[in-house]
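note to self — DONT lose this again. spent like an hour looking for the file last time. sequence + predicted structure for the chain T wanted, 172 res
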Amino acid sequence: MCEGDPVNQDWEDRVTAAWATFDEYPEERAAEFRALIGELVAELPEGSPLAPFEQACAWDSTGHSDKAAPLYREALAGGLSGYKGRRAKIQLSSSLRNIGQAEEGVKLLTPELDAPSDELDDAVRGCLALCLSSLGRDREGLSLVLGALAPHLPRYQRSMANYARLLVEPEE
């Protein structure tokens, strides 16, 4: 959610419930799912950045990165911030990669590496790694993924973190 958006918990709960049904919509019923999200979006006040964000998510999740990317941009330009703003940046970067604009995805996500930490940190690194790989920068991408993985390992955290670092910083 962004600051000052008058969305209530009931609306958020109904959006969450709609997304919980996503797997019930096979590819041939994708338009029905997008319509369900559209009905919820129609309840939002004019100019709410949540509207293009939710629409982008629906297009993206149904295989249309090309239609999602401009909507993510609109949401971010409209002031979407906080957790959903970070999600929008991750998802936009993924969509950009899918439509052949990985460099723009790298530019969008790289600053997120220094953003305040939250549960989306690993998603940032994973998506950024994919963008980097699409640009032929596999070592950098692998370094990010190994660095994200290291804290989750039951052992070898220090070694894995060092290996990740050494992929991009040669030993002296």
